[in-house]
Design a protein that fits this description.
Elements (H helix, E strand, L loop, with lengths): L1 H16 L1 H21 L7 E7 L4 H12 L3 E6 L5 H8 L4 E5 L3 H7 L2 E9 L3 H23 L7 E9 L7 H31 L2 H5 L5 H29 L9 H25 L3 H18 L12 H7 L3 H15 L3 H30 L1
Parallel strand pairs: 1-2, 1-3, 4-5
Antiparallel strand pairs: 3-4
Helix pairs in contact: 2-11, 7-9, 7-10, 7-11, 7-13, 9-10, 10-11, 10-13, 10-14, 13-14
Amino acid sequence: MKRFIGFVKKEFYHIFRDKRSMFILFGMPIAQIMLFGFAITNEINNVKIAVLDQSKDTETQKIIQKISNSSYFTIAQEIKTESEIESVFKKGEVKAVLVFEKDFIKHLQTQKNAKVQVITDATDPNMANTISNYITSILQNFIQEKNKNNKQAYQIQTQTQLFYNPAMKSVFTFVPGVMTVILMLVSAMMTSISITREKELGTMEVLLVSPIKPFQVIIGKVFPYIFLSVINAAVILLLGYFVFEMPIEGSLFLLAIESVLFIICALALGILISTLSDSQQTAMMISLFGLMLPVILLSGFIFPISSMPLPLQVISNIIPAKWFIIIIKAIMLKGASFSVIWKETLILVGMTLFFIVVSIKKYKIRLE
């Protein structure tokens, strides 16, 4: 029995000495419960909306103030004409536009009835539906408070209009999201495993000291995955277009260029992971747990980023998938040009260069 107890103690010592085991046992569960607990939510917070107030009277100002004071919405801007609505939506920051009819207070006082139009960006149908319900609820609450001191009941009619996805098809959200997840995980994971395999077998150093230059070795290892990932992207787009009737409103050429840029970014991230990993198992663990959860939860694919706590919103900015989802939705559903998505494109380019530079430095350190 003493031998058995001694053996168990030894195993405990081995586990406590191994930082990776400790991270898997305690670090990963804590990280996952924090991510799932804060990121997975159907509620909305601090959603940016725009206002088109064609009446500009005391009642509309009270309503705007009431909406602004709620934790659900932030008045991002006020627009002057209906022609500005689509350009506001194309920029991607504003998720809804609140339109007050002309002579709002006059209609409310004389006809006891006034109209408010809620126009939502339905590229994310679930979020659009939630926004519409929240705004309607605030308007109803406003009119109930107003009716407390009036004998005759006032009414506000809410008219909803959906931009880009009037049929509320969820596939409009899932095709860009699934494409992003597949390209990120396949590109990064396969690249990191491929290069780590060479290191694990001891052949990477042989390749790098051969007449072939180091960057040529890396490009040679990565190029097949660029080709295969491009095929994956094309298959997903074709299935989305022909099977699920996913529209492609923007330029196919721009969509192709942006997709290749994201693939290269993901491959560069895979190379970086390989420099941090000594074995295929470690590379697989980093790729799966270090990429899969953040890509799904913090990219805006399923859950709105604006509803997450501020620390998670900040962290989401370093997730390449977030910027690619914004780009691909803007091109496919909104028909956006490069002038609309240049900022997101520049961020992806910067991330790609960062991953490549760090990877090259790491490889040089390993060969010294």
